[in-house]
Structure formats: structure tokens, C-alpha cells
Design a protein that fits this description.
- The chain is of the alpha/beta class.
- It has three domains: 17-42 and 111-295, Phosphatidylinositol Transfer Protein Sec14p, CATH 3.40.525; 51-106, no CATH class; 298-367, no CATH class.
- It has 19 helices and five strands.
- The protein has helices at 17-22, 34-38, 42-50, 55-64, 67-70, 75-84, 89-106, 114-118, 150-166, 200-212, 230-237, 243-246, 261-268, 273-286, 289-292, 299-308, 313-324, 337-343, 352-366, and strands at 125-130, 136-141, 184-189, 218-224, 249-252.
- A five-stranded mixed sheet has the order 1-2-3-4-5, with helices on both faces.
- Helix 16 (299-308) packs antiparallel against helix 17 (313-324).
- It is globular, with a radius of gyration of 20 Å.
- InterPro entries: CRAL-TRIO_dom (IPR001251), CRAL-TRIO_dom_sf (IPR036865), CRAL/TRIO_N_dom_sf (IPR036273), PI_Transfer_CRAL-TRIO (IPR052578).
- Pfam families: CRAL_TRIO.
- Residues 1-50 are annotated as: Disordered.
Length: 367
């Protein structure tokens, strides 16, 4: 597996303090009250979040697997499923087997979002950076997505999750005695959310995928500017959400023409200054109708950057065009400055089908 290293950045070990702070009242604002999010068995959730399996427990789970499953399951995966099941070795082994059967059948690392290939405006959910611990940062904006087909969204979500895993730092780069990066951050901007988006099937896809096949992968989840209508969907799905997962959720607001110092202060706990600025600028651009109408995430541009490097003429031209469409003329919605710098010239950091996009473009250009 390709592993990602952040240039010039010392990795900080992701800790359990994320979970504890996320449910605090000071971190939550918006249409949902802190009590609506934190109304869980907090003692049980805290106990689960602190649990870390021993090497003997991990080895015992691996012993329960068939030889075929052990070829695809390493100690880190067994550790995650043990944490997800609260140390139940039999249940962890069963869930690992189910996931490996799913991976053999679906081959998620090769899943292509055919909707985005046909129309780049279909979805707006992609990896755009990393947090201070090295966890991949996923950003999505509901208002910029035009495709609401359940299967298309499932494929896109899987592809994004697999890309995030590919961009996780190399465990060998972790300081001695620290834990490897295994999870991601997700900033979900609800700008543009309306009654037509209150489809519980889409929420169920996320919950099922996360629980069944990507356990312990969601580190922190920011829900930005959720409108009142979101309460209907939240009431439908909240009782299906694990208490530990609920502790990882921040409800926050972005104000297009007001002070965002509270949101900025919260983001600064997780991201460097450039990434914080990128997120705030991205949210601001996405609320400008004149900019958002023509905005789409270009995976071919990302692939060209990775395959050709920052200095390539086509890459520079594409970046200038993206910046021209931004209100500040400097914002590149492809990703944060550190992310673009790290990906440039490194095609192996992208999933195979994203690498292939630039190769296809090159062939078409020569034809």
C-alpha cells in the first residue's frame, strides 16, 4: 500500500481528547442544541474511546481468521475491529471476515464514480488536506452537488474513503511509542441543503459503510451550517449513530457576512493556519452564487498535478483558471496549499483510476 508523508511536518499522535472535546457545549452551535448531540451514555462512550487492544488480543483475533483472510488482514485492521466491538474477539473476527468478503467482491480501491467522470459537477466531496495530526481532511458541500442518485453517491463515498486511506501518513514516520494515523477529518458544509436532501437512504449508506467496513476511521466530523430542516433527518438517523461517533461531531455555523472568529478558533485546534484560511475561503466562495454555479472539482486537474508536477504548463494554466473563478483570485479549490505541494509530482498517491485520468488525457491530446 502506498503511504503518504507530509513534508516538513512532525506528526502528532491522534488522541482520545478529540472525542471528549467534541461533545462539549462550547464547541457546538447551530440549529441543534448541545444536549441533542451529547444525549448519550457518556460514561460508556468514554470507556470505549479509551480502550486499546493488547498485542495478545490482536493476535487472538488473527488466529480466528482463515488463511485467506489473514493474507488481507494485518494487525492494524484487527486492532480497529477490536476497538469497534469493545474487545469482543469473536465478533471482531466475524466483522473482519464480512469486510474482506465485501472487499473481494467490490474491490473498493478500484471503484470509479462514473457520475463524476460524466459530469464533474455530480458530487463535491474530496480529500483536500490534512489536519495537525496528519489525518486526511475530507471537504464536501451539499449545495454544489447535482447528483442525488443513491448508488452514484455510494460509489463516490467509497472512492473518497479509499483515497483518504491512501493519503494517510506512513506508520513508520510516527514518533516512537505513538499510534499511527488511521482516521480522517470530515468537514461537511450543509450550505444549499433543502428538503430534497432529506433522503434517509443516503444517510444510511454513510452509517452502514462506516460501521461495517470503515470502523474507527472517522476521527472528527464538522457539520457546518445545518439548516432547521436538517432536524428532521437528524431525528431519523441519530438513534442509529454509535455514542462514540456522536462524541466526534461538531455542529458549527459559517456566516457569510458576519464574524467567524468562533468557527476559526475551533478549526485552529485541528488545522494549520493555511488550511483554516482555505476552509473559510472555500465556504465563502461556495456561498457566492456567481462563483458556485460554475464550480466543479476537477479530478483530471488533480491527476495532472500529481503526474506532471506543479511547474508543468498545463498544470499552471489549470490552477490560474481555478483561482480566477474565486472571489479572492488566490483560492485554489483543488486543496490546501500543503496538500497541493505534497501531491505534486507523486501520482502513486492517487488511486489507480485517478492516475489513469491524466494518462487518458495525454492519449487524447496526442490523437
Amino acid at each position: 500500500m502506498v503511504r503518504f508523508s507530509l513534508p516538513g511536518k512532525k506528526l502528532v499522535t491522534p488522541g482520545d481528547d478529540d472525542d471528549a472535546s467534541s461533545s462539549s457545549g462550547s464547541a457546538i452551535e447551530g440549529p441543534l442544541t448541545p444536549d441533542a448531540v451529547a444525549a448519550t451514555d457518556s460514561s460508556e462512550a468514554s470507556k470505549k474511546s479509551r480502550y486499546w487492544p493488547s498485542e495478545a488480543e490482536v493476535a487472538a483475533v488473527l488466529e480466528r481468521l482463515s488463511e485467506q483472510d489473514r493474507e488481507m488482514c494485518d494487525a492494524a485492521m484487527a486492532n480497529r475491529y477490536l476497538r469497534a466491538t469493545g474487545g469482543d474477539q469473536k465478533h471482531a473476527a466475524k466483522r473482519i471476515h464480512d469486510t474482506l468478503e465485501w472487499r473481494r467482491a467490490e474491490q473498493p480501491e478500484h471503484i470509479v464514480c462514473t457520475a463524476c467522470r460524466a459530469n464533474h459537477k455530480s458530487h463535491y466531496m474530496q480529500v483536500v488536506g490534512h489536519d495537525l495530526t496528519g489525518r486526511p481532511l475530507i471537504y464536501s458541500c451539499i449545495g454544489l452537488a447535482t447528483n442525488r442518485d443513491v448508488e452514484d453517491n455510494r460509489k463516490h463515498m467509497i472512492s473518497t474513503f479509499e483515497q483518504a486511506i491512501r493519503l494517510m501518513p506512513d506508520p513508520a514516520a510516527c514518533p516512537p511509542g505513538s499510534r499511527p494515523v488511521e482516521s480522517w477529518c470530515w468537514v461537511m458544509d450543509f450550505h444549499g441543503f433543502s428538503i430534497r436532501d432529506c433522503d434517509p437512504r443516503l444517510a444510511k449508506i454513510f452509517l452502514n459503510l462506516s460501521a461495517a467496513h470503515y470502523p474507527e476511521r472517522l476521527g472528527t466530523f464538522f457539520i457546518v451550517s445545518a439548516p432547521t430542516v436538517f432536524n428532521t433527518l437528524w431525528r431519523a438517523i441519530s438513534h442509529f449513530i454509535d455514542p462514540v461517533t456522536k462524541q466526534k461531531i461538531h455542529f458549527v455555523n459559517f456566516h457569510a457576512k458576519k464574524d467567524n472568529s468562533k468557527l476559526e478558533a475551533l478549526l485552529a485546534r485541528y488545522f494549520d493556519a493555511d488550511t483554516c484560511h482555505w476552509l473559510l475561503r472555500e465556504m465563502e466562495d461556495n456561498r457566492d452564487k456567481s462563483l458556485a454555479l460554475s464550480k466543479a472539482y476537477s479530478y483530471p486537474d488533480l491527476s495532472k498535478l500529481a503526474s506532471e508536477g506543479r511547474g508543468a504548463p498545463d498544470v499552471e494554466a489549470a490552477q490560474r483558471l481555478r483561482r480566477q473563478k474565486s472571489g479572492c483570485q488566490q483560492h485554489d479549490h483543488l486543496g490546501s496549499p500543503a496538500f497541493l505541494e505534497a501531491v505534486a509530482g507523486k501520482p502513486d498517491l492517487l488511486l489507480p483510476h485517478l492516475q489513469q485520468l491524466s494518462l487518458n488525457d495525454a492519449v487524447d491530446a496526442q490523437a
